[in-house]
Every structure is written in structure tokens, then in C-alpha cells.
UniProtKB/TrEMBL annotation:
Name of the protein described by the UniProt record: Regulatory protein, tetR family
Domain HTH tetR-type: 1-60
This protein's record includes keyword Transcription regulation: yes
Xref: InterPro entries: Homeodomain-like_sf, HTH-type_TetR-like_transc_reg, HTH_TetR, Tet_transcr_reg_TetR-rel_C_sf
Disordered as annotated region, ranges: 187-212
């Protein structure tokens, strides 16, 4: 089993266990290996978590490229990214567990630096797609892409926190709603109908990238 498959499994297990119950033994059982093999590959649980964070940085750019290939519209590609690919967890419990890992990262300088790098990679991907949307006429020409990028990130992150409290709908739906609400004032008249199309028409994409 390659490292990528182990890290994929780690993200799934982390959503089920949270930091307190996540161990190499639990992960080893998930992937059918012995804990010693994971120690040999990653050095320690912390080493594995750092490897997962490092991979997330590269995946942010890769996911953006894949979204562009699947969607002709930059805003549709952005919707697929923020609502599907970058959404951590399918249940409020999974989301809360991933959030607990992020909180733990904030007390570790190296882990925080990698989490910040992942966030900045997502910022770059978001800004690039918003800029493309301005160029293609989906967004107004006077749109401040830098400011809108920050607003998008704040809105979709906040939507996840609210969802973890009220459990309304799904994380995908809530993040899409937040994105659509933020983008609505900037859409051109010809593109206003795009936000009214159902998610199935706007496209979906593979899940699996953990938001850290």
C-alpha cells in the first residue's frame, strides 16, 4: 500500500475519531497493516499528520486544475471546490473532529505553518478562479478579487461552523449557499441565473481533500 492510500485512510479515520482517539494502531487496523509499518513510513503519529498537511497544500492546486477540466465556467469550478472537494466531513461529527485536529495544529508551530500553507493554497486557487470569472464576464469587471477571495473563504468556513451547530441540510449545501450569497452582488446580469440552478446541474466533484 502506497503512502497516498494510507493518508487517504488517515483522513477518513480522523473524521471518525477526533484527536483523542486517533492512534497509529487504529489507522493500521483500517488499512490492514501493523503499526510498526506506519512508524517506519512516517516516524510517528505527528509525522503522519504533518505528511497529510503537506499533501493538502499540493492538492489544493491540483483540485483547482481538475475542477477547470470538468467545468467550463470558473464559478462552477469554484463551487465544486469549496462545496465538495474542500469540505471536511459528511456529518457534523466528522466536521467537528476535523476541526479539533485543526485546533490542535494551532498549538504546534510546524503543524500551524503547514495548515496556513494549505489555507493560502486554497486562497490562490479561489482568487485565480474568481479572476477568470471576471475575465469571462461571469463577475463584474470592477470586482476586487482580493477582497472577494477573503470574503468567500470567511463565508464558507463560517457556514461549516454554523452547520455543525444547527445541522440544517448538508455541509455541501450550506457551503454552496454561502458561496452563492457572497457572489450574488458581483454577478453580471447575464450570469444571475447560474446561482439558481440546482447543484446537480452545476456539477459535483470527487471528495477527499481534508480542510485543515
Amino acid at each position: 500500500m502506497d503512502d497516498a492510500a494510507i493518508l487517504d485512510a488517515a483522513a477518513r479515520v480522523m473524521g471518525r475519531t477526533g484527536p483523542a482517539r486517533f492512534t497509529l494502531a487504529v489507522l493500521a487496523a483500517e488499512v490492514g497493516l501493523v503499526p510498526a509499518t506506519l512508524v517506519q513510513r512516517f516516524g510517528s503519529k505527528r509525522g503522519l499528520l504533518l505528511a497529510l498537511s503537506a499533501r493538502t497544500v499540493g492538492q489544493a492546486d491540483t483540485a483547482a486544475d481538475q475542477a477547470r477540466e470538468r467545468h467550463a465556467s470558473p464559478l462552477a469550478a469554484l463551487g465544486a471546490l469549496v462545496a465538495d472537494v474542500w469540505a471536511a466531513g459528511t456529518t457534523p461529527e466528522e466536521y467537528a473532529n476535523h476541526l479539533a485536529f485543526l485546533c490542535a495544529d494551532l498549538t504546534d508551530d510546524e503543524a500551524r505553518a503547514r495548515a496556513l500553507a494549505a489555507h493560502r493554497a486554497q486562497d490562490r486557487a479561489t482568487a485565480a478562479l474568481l479572476a477568470e470569472a471576471v475575465t469571462t464576464g461571469e463577475l463584474r469587471g470592477d470586482t476586487d478579487v482580493t477582497a472577494l477571495t477573503a470574503t468567500v473563504q470567511s463565508a464558507v468556513t463560517g457556514a461549516g461552523l454554523l452547520w455543525s451547530l444547527d445541522h440544517r441540510a448538508t455541509l455541501t449545501v450550506r457551503r454552496r449557499e454561502a458561496l452563492d450569497a457572497v457572489l450574488a452582488p458581483y454577478r453580471t446580469a447575464s450570469d444571475r441565473g447560474a446561482s439558481d440552478r440546482p447543484a446537480s446541474d452545476r456539477g459535483t466533484s470527487d471528495r477527499g481533500v481534508r480542510e485543515r
